[in-house]
Design brief:
single chain, about 270 residues, alpha/beta, 8-stranded mixed beta sheet, 9 helices, 10 strands, about 30% helix, about 15% strand, globular
């Protein structure tokens, strides 16, 4: 199963079964005032909270209301021309050809999602409507956006609900591979107990240069993730294995950095393309 979240969102793929849930998430850059170009790639939070953080950090000479108006105007101008990352359309086509289940898990709220995707119908047609999870989905509890694992677990549940209807075996988180461009998104995937591919914007990668292993393990601690709830789970013998909701461990091999999704190595992840 594959999760894809690359609008700026990415993908998740089942390594032991031919099932994949793709969560295509979107990240965008805010460029406002005096040529200043602050980057919020490190944050995967709701729009209001992001606006408050940015406004406090930038110390803009305008009110928060005026900033929001300018930001919204720029989004309406630029989002309709957004393009998928290189290699994404081909990857989605390959996943479909391989019989992989795919789904979308994006932090974008409905309005911005439509702005960014309406002109990309051929790309988003790969995602069944029931398997598209947006940031304002009421099933996601307030305050449980990325880096919390909820959006990926919900996306997985939409696939499993379909499998139950068919009388087929459900997919486990360990059988999923998440494709992410953001740091909180990678952490969310790792906390969901899934494997992850990190394909970041070059400037974001520069910011985290030297800390790549932390990002891949989901342990950058950029958003009070120590406050996220975790539940202990055990195997069939009762032996404690890991904590549900816990990030990975540096060097555990469950995440990989890719600089591009062009010519994605399907075989490495158990995807058999016909």
């Amino acid at each position: 199963m594959c999760f894809y979240d690359n609008l700026g969102d990415h993908v998740c793929h089942g390594t032991s079964r031919r099932n994949c849930k793709v969560a295509l998430d979107q990240r965008y850059i805010l460029s406002l005032i005096r040529g200043n170009e602050p980057k919020l790639w490190a944050f995967e939070i709701d729009a209001l909270q992001a606006s408050e953080i940015f406004h406090a950090w930038a110390q803009l000479p305008i009110s928060r209301t005026e900033y929001t108006v300018k930001q919204t105007a720029l989004q309406r101008i630029n989002f309709p021309s957004a393009r998928p990352l290189p290699g994404v359309p081909e990857l989605l086509a390959d996943l479909k050809a391989a019989g992989i289940y795919i789904a979308l898990a994006t932090s974008s709220h409905t309005i911005n999602y439509k702005l960014k995707t309406t002109h990309l119908g051929s790309v988003f047609s790969y995602f069944p409507s029931r398997n598209r999870i947006l940031g304002d989905d009421p099933r996601i509890p307030k305050g449980r956006g990325k880096p919390a694992p909820d959006i990926y677990l919900l996306a997985l549940e939409t696939i499993n609900a379909e499998l139950r209807e068919k009388g087929e075996k459900e997919i486990t988180p360990e059988e999923c591979l998440v494709f992410e461009d953001s740091v909180p998104g990678v952490e969310a995937g790792r906390r969901a107990g899934m494997r992850a591919i990190w394909c970041p914007h070059p400037e974001l990668l520069n910011i985290y240069r030297g800390r790549e292993p932390e990002v891949l393990a989901g342990v950058t601690n950029i958003s009070n993730n120590n406050q996220l709830e975790v539940d202990e789970i055990s195997d069939e013998t009762g032996k404690l294995q890991r904590k549900k909701g816990q990030p990975g461990i540096i060097g555990d091999g469950w995440a990989e950095l890719l600089y591009t999704l062009v010519n994605f190595p399907h075989d490495k992840y158990g995807i058999e393309v016909q």
